[in-house]
Task: structure prediction
Amino acid sequence: MKKIIIINGPNLNLLGKREPEIYGSETFEDFFETLKSQYPQFKIEYFQSNIEGELIDKLHEVGFSYDGIILNAAAYTHTSVGIGDAVKGISSPVIEVHISNTYNREEFRHHSFISPNAKGVILGFGLGSYSLALQSFT
Ligand code: DQA
Result:
């Protein structure tokens, strides 16, 4: 069974409450339960942190043994050389995802330190971005 982990960055623990007009009204925990039941062929784990170094530590921990990593680094996408380097340094394929289409938002969201090192990028499909990323591992 393929082992996949979803890693969410800062403020994504507030999904459901945070700017629902952009990010929707479903909590990630509820979405995650649905996702697991839709894809019983995968062993899917979930990790969230608001702390840059914890996200880097988790990428190091899983990045040489898991079959896939679905990463929404949230705001750190646009600022973190360290997370970009971590993605480059590990061997598991990383799919970068975003809930919103960052290209139709503020200019500072148009740059990603993750994308050059990701296997692929999926954005703008709401929480469906995670489902599409998961499908890429089938
Ligand atoms: C986000 C987009 C980022 O620009 C933002 O900082 C987030 C969420 C998204 O999933 O749409 O926190 O990664």
